[in-house]
Specification:
7-stranded antiparallel sheet, single chain, 5 helices, 30% helix, two-stranded antiparallel ribbon
């Protein structure tokens, strides 16, 4: 029996179509299988956006107010400016420093308090985590900065959430300096306190242990000031 012309034309047309399009020429049972197979596939659900814990503080307090006048009198006798000198900063809400320095006869003292605040960021981590990483970097810098020698680093308790002290020596213009740095973290804020001392002319270099004791006490006071003066709710 001869096939009708329309049917023969249809068969030949299907035979020349690429494989990816042959489904249009399949039998009814193939269509059913394709439908069942397609029904079992489900589009992947969109991944949830990463979240991080909100930071505790959103704004720093006045850095020059973190230490009391009594503390300045004790640590920096005859300070040039008892209220401290605020150092330049692009944004004092997140980064600020204050300097006190003084010369009592031949005894020189310099004290700097620097504050750094970190916001929580889904791409970078929580404010606390970022602050912890920065604190570790600050301690490392203190131990290797400039021409310091004999660095001694120690973890200490009781100052914020975590703290590290770095004791070094340095010679400037023939004078021996004793440098003490305390890096402390309280939530998402890092306090870097640097306390330096030297004896000019006939004065002796200050005792490093005494300087460190005073630096720790001042750092603890600064941590307390953060808790009282920083704005919460970052």
């Amino acid at each position: 029996m001869h096939r009708s012309a329309p049917r023969l034309a249809r068969i030949l047309a299907c035979a020349t179509i690429p494989v990816v399009l042959v489904a249009g020429c399949s039998s009814g049972s193939d269509k059913k299988d394709d439908k069942n197979a397609g029904g079992s596939a489900r589009p992947g659900s969109p991944s949830a956006s990463p979240t991080v814990a909100a930071a505790k503080f959103s704004k720093l307090p006045d850095v020059c107010s973190t230490l009391s006048g009594k503390t300045i009198d004790d640590l920096v006798p005859k300070a040039q400016n008892k209220k401290g000198k605020a150092l330049p900063s692009a944004d004092t809400n997140t980064s600020a420093s204050c300097l006190w320095s003084g010369l009592d006869e031949f005894d020189y003292r310099s004290l700097t308090v620097s504050l750094k605040l970190f916001h929580s960021d889904p791409g970078l981590g929580s404010g606390d985590k970022r602050a912890g990483e920065y604190a570790a970097q600050q301690a490392s810098r203190a131990a290797t900065a400039g021409k310091v020698t004999d660095p001694k680093t120690e973890k200490v308790a009781g100052i914020g959430d975590e703290a590290t002290t770095v004791s070094t020596k340095e010679k400037k213009d023939g004078d021996d300096f004793r440098d003490q740095t305390v890096v402390a973290r309280t939530a998402n804020v890092v306090i870097t306190l640097q306390y330096d001392g030297a004896g000019y002319e006939t004065a002796k270099a200050p005792d490093a242990a005494d300087l460190l004791k005073d630096a720790k006490s001042a750092a603890k006071e600064a941590v307390g000031a953060i808790g009282k003066g920083a704005k919460s709710g970052a």
